[in-house]
Amino acid sequence: MRTSYFNCAKLLKIEREEYETKEESELRTLEELLTRDTLFLDDFSSENVNKKTIEFIYLLLNGAIEQSRPRFFITGNLDLKHISANISDRLASRLSGLCGLDNIIELKDQDWRTKG
After folding, report:
1. Is residue 116 over pLDDT 60?
2. What whole-number distance in Å separates Cα of residue 115 and Cα of residue 28?
3. Residues 25-67 pLDDT 10s
């Protein structure tokens, strides 16, 4: 089983750097990610949101839906309502389609990094 783990902000930084240096690198990055059986995206929604990052994430989520893979595990601080209202309805829709509304779990606890 091929599994990848990425901090979402780091993944988008890698994608931006490759895109600036290589033609069509965005498509290669997407194609590579979509070959995985499982993909963990940590800290989703922490990235700087702009038109390009929204498009990249949309293409990744939509590609996973179209290919019925990879299996996604996504963590983040924002709920679907916030993502829909403040980032993109299309991303919120794809997230709910990948995860299923019954599988979206809000965990409320103190940030482990600030615990003494």
Report:
1. yes
2. 40
3. 556 777 888 888 888 888 876 666 777 778 888 888 888 888 8
DSSP assignment of 42-67: EEET-SPP-HHHHHHHHHHHHHHHHH
**Within 10 A of 12 (CB to CB), how many other CB atoms are there?**
21
What are the CB-based long-range contacts (under 8 Å, 24+) for 47-52? 47/8, 47/9, 47/12, 48/9, 48/12, 49/87, 52/16
Find out whether 27 and 63 touch, Cβ atoms under 8 Å.
no
Task: Give the global pTM.
Answer: 0.73
Coil, helix or strand at residue 72: strand
* CA atoms within 13 A of residue 13's CA, in its CB half-sphere: 7
